[in-house]
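Private note to self, pasted from the team thread so I don't lose it. Backbone tokens:
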């Protein structure tokens, strides 16, 4: 398992449940997979040759990771060099590198924003006539790290320097701003064929220039003609890249007024924030982590039958953030845990006396609270119930008491 964070935890648990010997390669830190792994190597996960030597020394039978773009090139490198089941480096990079992904989408006639690759402090020639706002982001990061909306040249250069400093390849991408509702698309590729699993709506915190989701809700309320268009794009990408097997997590924007779709990004791994490990199985009945593990360990069985045996109900995650200060009161947590539709919540680290930071990136989100129901309408009612049940009070440096920020 490349990486030992929360994104790899639930896949790692399945590895252990099957009786396999689990070796984790990770940077030092308080990573949950470390506690359940049979052996741990503390090593830079970006050092592909070093990780390969570890895998060769251990004579591993499979190499995996999930819910994190940054691990996937190393996973592919080990699989390719050791002739193990999985993706190759070219396939992974065609998705992980945002510039390469945009180029591929243009080739396949999949709509993308006007964009440019940037490696130095300047405005690209092909963007000079594009009106602001623009989006600036690292070419190879995830979780909204370094992603900023800019409204002028001064802001652009500030955001560009930030994006270049975060990028492993010291490369950024700048693109025109596409206004629309975000759509999350989950699927599975098997022998180069794409199988759609679910489409979800995403709700964002109302924070200037920050793009941080507060909720992801299955199923989407999007019109079926639009979802059909999106699924057609997903199939086109899968056929072109031709992975042997992979979970596919994609994000699109839809402009209702103009009836236009634009792809934001896609990745050959499960959606983070427990989308692939929890929301998709609750919504569809399909365990993507189990499918991934089966394919990687050559215990495939009837994959196509399992993909076809899909139910359709509803699931969602709800997250929030807290104002900067100190937590002084928590109410409704026990009641929240007792609600039948709450399937899992991640709030154990919220305690009276804890200090809270200024909300600047996804890692500052609290939760999530994962819920499931029979229908989209039920889910929306349950989200309101969750928000009314839980109350957390924070005292700021000015002495004022403020509560949970759900939106």
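Design output:
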């Amino acid at each position: 398992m490349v990486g030992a964070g929360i994104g790899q935890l639930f896949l790692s648990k399945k590895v252990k449940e099957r009786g396999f010997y689990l070796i984790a390669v990770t940077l030092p830190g308080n990573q949950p997979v470390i506690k359940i792994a049979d052996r741990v190597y503390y090593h830079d996960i970006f050092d592909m040759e070093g990780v390969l030597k570890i895998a060769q020394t251990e004579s591993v039978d499979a190499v995996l990771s999930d819910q994190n773009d940054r691990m996937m090139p190393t996973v592919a490198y080990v699989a390719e060099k050791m002739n193990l089941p999985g993706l190759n480096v070219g396939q992974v990079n065609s998705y992980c590198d945002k510039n390469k992904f945009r180029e591929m989408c243009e080739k396949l006639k999949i709509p993308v924003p006007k964009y440019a690759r940037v490696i130095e402090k300047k405005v690209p020639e092909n963007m000079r006539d594009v009106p602001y706002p623009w989006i600036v982001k690292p070419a190879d990061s995830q979780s909204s790290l370094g992603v900023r909306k800019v409204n002028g040249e001064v802001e652009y250069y500030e955001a560009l320097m930030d994006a270049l400093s975060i990028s492993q390849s010291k490369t950024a991408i700048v693109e025109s701003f596409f206004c629309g509702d975000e759509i999350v698309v989950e699927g599975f590729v098997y022998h180069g064929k794409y199988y759609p699993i679910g489409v979800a709506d995403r709700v964002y915190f109302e924070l200037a220039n920050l793009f941080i989701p507060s909720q992801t809700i299955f199923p989407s309320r999007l019109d079926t003609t639009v979802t059909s268009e999106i699924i057609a794009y997903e199939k086109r990408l899968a056929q072109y890249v031709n992975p042997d097997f992979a979970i596919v997590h994609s994000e699109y924007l839809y402009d209702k007024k103009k009836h236009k779709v634009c792809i934001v990004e896609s990745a050959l791994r499960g959606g983070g924030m427990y989308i692939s490990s929890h929301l998709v199985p609750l919504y569809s009945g399909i365990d993507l982590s189990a499918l991934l593990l089966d394919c990687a360990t050559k215990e495939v069985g009837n994959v196509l039958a399992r993909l076809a045996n899909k139910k359709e109900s509803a699931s969602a995650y709800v997250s929030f953030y807290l104002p900067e200060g100190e937590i002084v009161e928590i109410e409704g947590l026990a009641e929240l845990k007792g609600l039948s539709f709450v399937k899992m919540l991640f709030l154990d680290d919220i305690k009276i006396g804890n200090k809270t930071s200024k909300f600047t990136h996804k890692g500052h989100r609290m939760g999530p609270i994962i819920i499931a129901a029979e229908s989209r309408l039920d889910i929306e009612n349950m989200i309101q119930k969750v928000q009314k049940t839980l109350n957390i009070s924070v005292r700021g440096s000015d002495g004022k008491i403020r509560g949970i920020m759900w939106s």
